[in-house]
Amino acid sequence: IVKNTIVMIITSHLLKKSITNREQRPHKCDVCGKSFTQKGILKNHLLTHSQQRPYKCDVCGKSFTQKGILKNHLLTHSDQRPHKCDVCGKSFNRKGNLSDHILIHNCGKGFYMKKYLKNHLLTHSSLRPYNCNDCGKSFKRKDNLLDHLLTHSNNH
């Protein structure tokens, strides 16, 4: 339900954006017909039709048409993985890769409050952050720990 709702919202947003952008893109590429909002963006785009690739990776030698694309490429050579999945803890060097990864955790359940979704996400995680100080047993949810603590109070 949540996944379908999100897809519908994104689709609706992209459709509106597409209609709006067509009206507000006065700079057109003579080669392929693609339009842009700014002249500078068109200028960068024109490099994709030429052999010019002025931005070269010092690590592997691959060349790019834009500085931003090179910067994004450099992340593939880095050990830095600043984008971490809240569900399983897996880290990614690109935000887009994390966004793609998060979809595997969507089991289709929907929640009307964010706190219930967060609580549910723990069921898909190996994390067990709530520990019993008496016996060391760990739990994914605080309410499960509290229920467990009652078993110790009944033993005393």
Automatic annotation (TrEMBL):
Q: Where is the C2H2-type domain?
A: 27-54, 55-82, 83-110, 130-156
**Which UniProt keywords are present, listed alphabetically?**
Metal-binding, Nucleus, Repeat, Zinc, Zinc-finger
InterPro entries, sorted: Znf_C2H2_sf (IPR036236), Znf_C2H2_type (IPR013087)
Give the subcellular location.
Nucleus
Record GO terms (molecular function): DNA-binding transcription factor activity, RNA polymerase II-specific; sequence-specific DNA binding; zinc ion binding
> Which is one Gene Ontology cellular component term of this protein?
chromosome
Query: Mind listing the GO biological process terms from this record?
Result: positive regulation of DNA-templated transcription
- Its family? Belongs to the krueppel C2H2-type zinc-finger protein family.
Q: What is this protein called?
A: C2H2-type domain-containing protein
Give the originating organism. Answer: Timema shepardi
